[in-house]
Amino acid sequence: MTVATASGDTVHNGLAAPLRHTLLCSTVLVAAAHLAAAQPAINAQPQGGRVVAGTATIGQTTTLTQIDQTSQRAAVNWSSFDVGSKQQVQFQQPSPSAMTLNRVTGADPSQIAGKITANGQIVLVNPAGVLFTKGAQVEAQSVVVSAAGISDQNFMAGRMVFDQSARPDAAVVNQGRITVKQTGLAGLVAPRVENDGVISARLGHVVLGGAQTATLDLYGDGLLAIDVTRQVTQAPMDKDGKTATALVTNTGTVRADGGTVLLTASAVDGVVQTLVTAGGNISAPSVGGRTGRIAVRGTGGAVVVTGGVLAQGQRPGTAGGQIELNATGVVTLASTARVDASGQAGGGTIAVGTTLARAKGGPSVTPRLTAAKTTVTAGATIAANATARGNGGRVTVLSSDGTSMAGSTTTRGGPQGGDGGNVEISATHGLMITGTVDTRAPAGKIGLLTIDPDTLTIGDNVVTANPAAPAPDGSNQPAAGVQTISAATFNAFAANVSLSATGDITLGGSTPLATATSGASVTLNAGSTLTIGTALDQSGNVTLTGDVGIVIDAAINIGANTLTLNGGGITQGTAGTITAGTLAGASTGAVDLSTASNAVATVGGFTATGDFSLSNAANRNLTVIGPLSANNITLGTSGTGAISLQGAVTTTGNNTTIALTGGSGGIALNAAVGAGAGTTGTIVDLVTTGGGDVTQTPASGITAAELVGNVSGSV
Q1: CA 542, CA 564: separation in Å to the nearest integer?
Q2: What distance in Å separates the CA atoms of residue 638 and residue 578, rounded to the nearest whole number?
Q3: With helix as H, strand as E and coil as C, how does 242-291 read?
Q4: CB-count exposure of residue 687 (10 Å: 0-12, 13-18, 19+)
Q5: Is there a contact between 630 and 656 (Cβ–Cβ < 8 Å)?
């Protein structure tokens, strides 16, 4: 028996001191891209172990390799590190925070088919790669597997700087089961990383990183930090000898209850089209007050989600967690993608094509990274619902060049109480939405959908992308300048809707627009001109803003609710009939609503720097609760209609006119009417038809240079 008792000693055969009961494992495992699928010999063992830093002993029997470590950190060089299916490697360390570096100096990849256990942390480094075959088991406090190397100096000083380049074709592949203990880390880092097995880290961290070299921050708050210090510069090969389709691929199960999961890859632009493929099942369910966090990120290419990405609060009293899916290139959610941050006590936050900070803070936050293009394919689901009692969460889907949203997005409030959440879908240049949004709340207030591109067209015949066939390069994304929502899509929105554009917003076509939920509000905010070219039938309040102007060429019918008009000049075509309980707003130009036969019950607070005119259809009463102020003011109705002034109506310029025309219902002056402060030369013109009277209360003084009129009844 030969036993290594200090740095530099060599172990051949024998048995080390008895292993301690608790195990710590922080292993760096790397599998080369050309690793054979065949398992190692059933009795294969690590060979040529030599302690090069720290203090440890190594012993072997026919089925067991045992490392007894007495220093807090120790480094061991191995000529090879294979573990057959009948073999076990056991690390006995002085504490759960103790760490053993296992460095392979031979030329071959490591193949692990047996069992590795530790009461502390283990790191396995092999520049040629590491393969965990089916049936392999790793159990430790932490496990780090890396194709990139680390120096003894950095390791012994606690600096997890893997700055020694891996072989370009090196891969770390897990087909077995890796389990780290509570608060531990499972990290796989190589030019190509693949998980087809199971990785578990309760209250801990899981990192799958595609990089040539990297630095890990084991103790950072939140998502474990990985700093890619050297990007992948050539496309690695997969296990079949073909060019890998992604640097990081998950088809298995990754679970970090109450912890964090990070899938990330970095490559020089153009080396590979897809950096990360997130399939299988990736979950970080909440544990008590600790919500899970999942991030899938790519620098230099695309990210594709094909499976489940779940940060749910499944137990009573737990809220949903946080999910970020982002890349410098294209972010695609395939038809099979399920992204869910729902929780019994409230929904979490989901960011697609942007950062969590942007999703939480809204448009006022400038994200550090926004995807070039984002596709949510038909069939994909995004959810941040409250499933019991609580508010819905937040979902933000963004891109800089083009967003195609054809999937389903929900942020519903809890069935036992709570309001609906918020959804934002946008792109700077190209936007197409054909999917559904639901922010309803069975026992609370409906939530909000925000859409804020450059320009926006809503109507029957709009250009649509091909959401059923997402391209990783975004080639089927909406072109720059194409920003559309079909009438059918708009009408299916179950949310309060806020549409904001820096340019024009145009509503067109023959299909009336009306969102799906009774009482939902609609806000249209155009930085240029807002054109209402198709009927807008809404059962909630509507706010229309056009900084340059508003053109109303189709009917607006919102029943007894409030219509607010803001912006520049406001004009009305003959088909632009307005039916509203209250009309309010502010205009920097003139407001002409006298062309169509309107049915406005009340004029609330309204100011205009130009003239203001409003005519109701015959037999429609008009009440002004004001204050209403403009240059010249014209209010009219006919038939049995009446005009009642309950709030002040005043002019803002000199030598102006207030003209009031009532039907047989007459004109009731119950508030001040006439010249505004500092103005002179105002004329008040009162007209009634059908025998209508003009009445005045003591509080309704008339301030005018001249009172004129034609009253068919008494005054």
Answers
A1: 6
A2: 16
A3: CECCCCEEECCEEECCCCEEEEEEEECCCCCCEEEEECCEEECCCECCEC
A4: middle
A5: no
Closest by alpha carbon to 195, among 256, 131, 257? 131
Both structure tokens of 40: 């190692």
Give the CA count within 13 Å in the CB-facing half-sphere of 360. 9
d(CA 536, CA 554): 8
Element (H, E) at 153: helix 152-156
Query: How remote is the C-alpha of 562 from its chain's centroid?
Result: 32
CA distance 211 to 233: 9
Q: Which 3 state secondary structure label does DSSP give 154?
A: helix
C-alpha to C-alpha distance for 110 and 123, rounded to whole angstroms: 13
Distances (CA, A) of 685 to 306, 590, 672, 678, 694: 70, 20, 14, 20, 12
Q: Which amino acid, one-letter code, is at 304?
A: V
pLDDT in tens, 606-664: 999 999 999 999 999 999 999 999 999 999 999 999 999 999 999 999 999 999 999 99
- Give whole-number Cα distances, 142 to 122, 173, 187, 304, 539, in Å: 6, 17, 8, 28, 57
CA distance 215 to 709: 85
293 bridge partner residues:
260, 322
| 3 state SS of 588 | coil
Q: What type of residue is 449? A: L
Residue type (1 letter), 463: V
Phi and psi at 616, nearest 5°, equal -95, 160
Average pLDDT of adjacent 10-residue blocks, the chain of 715 residues = 40 33 31 51 95 97 97 98 97 97 97 97 97 97 96 95 92 97 93 97 94 77 66 77 87 96 88 92 96 95 97 97 97 97 98 96 92 96 98 97 95 98 91 95 97 89 52 52 84 96 93 92 97 95 97 97 97 97 98 96 97 97 96 96 97 96 96 92 95 91 94 93
Report the SS3 class of residue 491: helix
Question: What is the CB-side half-sphere exposure of residue 430 using CA atoms within 13 A?
Answer: 20
Q: How far is CA 376 from CA 261, 287, 425, 630, in A?
A: 22, 29, 11, 48
Sequence-distant (≥ 6) Cβ neighbours of residue 615 within 8 angstroms = 593, 594, 595, 597, 598, 634, 635, 636, 637
Asked whether the beta carbons of 65 and 56 are under 8 A apart, the reply is: no
Separation between Cα atoms, residue 356 and residue 365, nearest integer Å: 10
Q: Using CA atoms, how far apart are residues 236 and 98, in angstroms rounded to an integer?
A: 33
| Per-residue pLDDT at 25 | 31
The residues, any chain, with a CB within 8 Å of residue 332's CB and separated by 6 or more, are: 302, 303, 304, 305, 374, 375, 377, 470, 472
Helix (H) or strand (E) holding 360: helix 356-361
User: Cβ–Cβ contacts within 10 Å for residue 378, how many?
Assistant: 17
435 contacts 407 by C-beta, under 8 angstroms: yes
DSSP 177-195: EEEE-TT-EEEEEESEEEE
Output the CA torsion sign for 73, 77, 80, 84. Answer: negative
User: How many other C-beta atoms can be found within 10 angstroms of the C-beta atom of residue 217?
Assistant: 12
* Nearest-angstrom CA–CA distance, 305 and 697: 70
Based on the number of CB atoms within 10 Å of its own CB, is 174 exposed (0-12), middle (13-18) or buried (19 or more)? buried
Cα separation of 499 and 449, whole Å?
Answer: 8
pTM of the model: 0.90
Tokens of 556: 């607006």
539-565: pLDDT as tens digits: 999 999 999 999 999 999 999 999 999
